[in-house]
Amino acid sequence: MAKAKNKYYVDLRIKITEWIKRFIFKPNYTISLGWIGYNLHKLKPIQEADIIYIHWTGFGYLSIKDIANILNLGKPTFIFMHDMWFITGGCHHSFECNLYKKYCSKCPRLGNNIFNSIVSFTFNLKKKYLTRYQNLQIITPSIWLSNCVKESALFNSHNIS
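^ thats the sequence. predicted structure below, dont judge the formating
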């Protein structure tokens, strides 16, 4: 019974996320809010691991708070950035926008509307829950993305490889 209930809950969270992306944001705008996810930090393999290596968090796998819970375990944690999501207010690529260098707000892709508060809120969640951990190591696949992280307001003081 608990498994069926949990599956319904997970499916509902994913549907809500997709609804927000489809009806609030522009169709050509790829954004992940990072508000929902799984409590992986409670799993025995995570608690017993020597290091944590995170590749992908989007689509409801890990929320910003879930990542903070993993970091709070104190283990060396490596995040492989496949895109710019960790340093923005939710977009996967900032294109011409450089707001991630100071503070994501008034997103040029969203236009000047009430939904900009969603981007600001997500950026603030990342700042509040992720930036304070010194056991976080960021890995990027390119010099370009590494430079973006170094210039970002969120993770410019972290180790970057």
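The longest helix spans residues 2-23.
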